[in-house]
């Protein structure tokens, strides 16, 4: 993948799959280092924000090596992970129920899921409106969705520091420990994300209410949630 070029359409799908296959072996290690393990707490916040009862069926999309799936399982949920990168699925540190698949064409019947989670992958999907439409198909009325994604701190000083860290330090760390090209691309991929108001409006248009956006850790990440309309 050319880190200076943001692909679209089928080219984006192929490039993202190839990139994650390449970085899978050390993905978890790099994540922990880059976020100073704050990603662990962010996932816990997201699972709590679902507000679902133990035993609920939750799919984690773009599940990677299973971090969200393990957290959900530890909290008593029935979990299925979905990811289009076989390399990520194969690099999981321990077994979990998972399937290779496309988040825009999920292998689930209508209304079968109680909830959906997704961590730091919205910007990697081919397009968000069809993704939200697919979620509306597979999540039951009253079901919940929760996403983690990167964000920019509202404080200008913090935003500057975060920009330097995310744009310069992260590629250096990622390059030293994993794949330099991939970790130069990932900060640039934030450009795929729509403005927060647009993203929430896309969710509402697809059939989700109670849409909310919460900034975490002074605004370096965000938790986005919603409820499937009844």
General description of the model:
This protein has 230 residues and is an alpha/beta fold. The protein has one domain: Rossmann fold. It is built from nine helices and seven strands. It has helices spanning 9-23, 27-35, 38-50, 67-74, 86-90, 128-138, 156-177, 180-188, 196-206; strands at residues 57-61, 78-83, 98-100, 113-119, 139-150, 208-216, 221-228. A seven-stranded mixed beta sheet has the order 3-2-1-4-5-7-6, sandwiched between helices. Helix 6 links the parallel strand 4 and strand 5. Helix 3 crosses helix 4 (67-74), helix 6 packs parallel to helix 9 and helix 7 (156-177) packs antiparallel against helix 8 (180-188). The longest helix has 22 residues, at 156-177. The chain is globular and about 45 Å long.
List keywords for this structure.
single chain; 230 residues; alpha/beta; Rossmann fold; 7-stranded mixed sheet; globular
If you consult CATH, what is the topology?
Rossmann fold
What oligomeric state best describes the polypeptide chains here? single chain
Order of helices and strands: HHHEHEHEEHEHHHEE
Terminal residue distance: 42 Å
Unreliable stretches: none
Mean pLDDT: 95
- Shape from CA axes? globular
Please state roughly what percent of the residues sit in beta strands, choosing from under 5%, 5-15%, 15-25%, 25-35%, 35-45% or over 45%.
Answer: 15-25%
Biggest sheet features: 7 strands, mixed
Specify the CATH homologous superfamily. Vaccinia Virus protein VP39
Structural class assignment: alpha/beta
By CATH, the architecture is named 3-Layer(aba) Sandwich
Biggest sheet strand line-up: 3-2-1-4-5-7-6
Give the C-level CATH assignment: Alpha Beta
**Radius of gyration over alpha carbons?**
17 Å
Helical residue percent? 40-55%
Q: How many strand segments?
A: 7
Number of domains: 1
Compute the number of helices: 9
């Amino acid at each position: 993948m050319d880190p200076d070029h943001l692909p679209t359409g089928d080219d984006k799908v192929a490039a993202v799959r190839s990139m994650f296959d390449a970085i899978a072996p050390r993905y978890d290690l790099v994540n922990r280092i880059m976020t100073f393990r704050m990603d662990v707490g962010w996932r816990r916040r997201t699972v709590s924000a679902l507000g679902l009862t133990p035993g609920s069926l939750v799919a984690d999309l773009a599940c990677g090596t299973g971090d969200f799936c393990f957290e959900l399982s530890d909290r008593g949920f029935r979990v299925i992970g979905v990811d289009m990168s076989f390399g990520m699925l194969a690099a999981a540190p321990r077994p979990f129920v998972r399937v290779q698949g496309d988040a825009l064409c999920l292998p689930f019947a209508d209304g079968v899921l109680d909830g959906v989670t997704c961590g730091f992958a919205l910007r990697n999907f081919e397009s968000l409106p069809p993704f939200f439409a697919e979620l509306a198909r597979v999540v039951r009325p009253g079901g919940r969705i929760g996403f983690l994604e990167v964000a920019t701190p509202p404080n200008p000083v913090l935003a500057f520091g975060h920009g330097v860290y995310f744009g310069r330090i992260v590629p250096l760390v990622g390059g030293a420990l994993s794949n330099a090209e991939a970790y130069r691309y990932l900060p640039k991929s934030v450009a795929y994300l729509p403005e927060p108001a647009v993203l929430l409006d896309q969710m509402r248009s697809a059939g989700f209410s109670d849409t909310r956006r919460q900034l975490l850790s002074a605004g370096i990440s965000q938790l986005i949630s919603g409820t499937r309309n009844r």
